[in-house]
Amino acid sequence: MSILKQNKNQDEDAYFNFINSLKSEVTKKEYEREIRLYMKFCNVSKLSDLLSIVEPQKQIIKYLMSLKERGLAYNSVSLALYAIFHFYEMNDIALNKKKINMFKGEFKKVSDRAYTHEEIKKILDISDLRMKSIVLLMASSGIRIGSIPLLKLKNLEKIDSTYKITVYEGTNDQYYTFCTPECTYFIDTYLEYRTQNGEILHKDSYLIRDQFDITDLEQVRNKSKGIAISTIKGLIHNVLIKSGIRVVDHTQYSRKEVPESYGCRKFFTTQMIKSKVTFENRLMLEGHSLGITDHYARLDVQDNYSEYLKAVSLLTINEENRLKLKLEQKIQVEKTQIETLKADFEKFKNEVLKQRSKS
Q1: Is there a single domain that holds both residue 287 and residue 148?
Q2: CA-CA distances (angstroms) from residue 209 to 33, 127, 358?
Q3: Do 137 and 148 touch, CB atoms closer than 8 A?
Q4: Structural domain for 185, as ranges
Q5: Does 129 share its domain with 274?
Q6: What is the pLDDT of residues 273-323, one digit of tens each?
Q7: What share of the chain is helix, strand, coil (3-state, %, to 5)?
Q8: How far is CA 332 from the centre of its chain?
Q9: Which of 19, 174, 210, 285 has the fewest CB atoms within 10 Å, counting from its CB?
């Protein structure tokens, strides 16, 4: 439930100024989550109470220090500050940002890695259809976790045995990528499961929806909501523990070798590089800007799709599926070679016949 729905009057103005000055839906959700956490720290239930804090700078610094004590990453601390700064700025309260930022500490580059094929397989082995679709979406298309709740069926277009996925549709961050046939299979199976249980799917249906009780048709059919980012994060955290990839540390927070959700995106990038996908195509499929090249490059869908296909084998998790893909690719290569030989033979035969007719 949004803060606006919980509070009235002055809170409506505070929330309106805060949320409607943000352009991206993803940023809105992230900033609102950060403000909720800050409200909890300040022990207030009303948004407007944050505007009544006598010395907001001191309170923000205390909050900042508590985040650091918990071991939160530098970027996570920065996101919290951006949200708080934006809230106060849009509600006409000036802060000494430079002073507050001095308490953030030094950015430390942390060495981490991507998930391996074996680790992702462990996750998939204990996951349900929805979770399989989520994990493979992130691993085989490289999309960020924050984009998943926004995806609707209209954002998917079938190309051969893969999906072309339009991410952040209608925003300045819009781009497209692809997913593997393996991922496509689980998405199709997940959607079929929803249909079989009474949901009427249409172009504006969420690709990944909230969990539902299959015995409650009203809930299945008329109360479908997109899954929340916090829910996805919780599901990933739980499945990592259940699969044995993560061990619960009850003593203190510490950064792990593989980032929980970002490890999938790292996996995607790693396999793209190993498959020798061109740098420009890889950046586009990851949703990155090409800089000034954006104004000149005219790479069409087929260009990017052809490059993506180079990495499909390495982006596939199940060993049987990988072997099947390799076999299909080998058959296709041999088929192409046979067709080439046939064409060469026909050309040679026609040349011979032409020479005979002349003589």
Answers
A1: yes
A2: 20, 16, 73
A3: yes
A4: 117-315
A5: yes
A6: 999 999 999 999 999 877 655 555 567 899 999 999 999 999 999 887 767
A7: 60, 5, 35
A8: 32
A9: 174
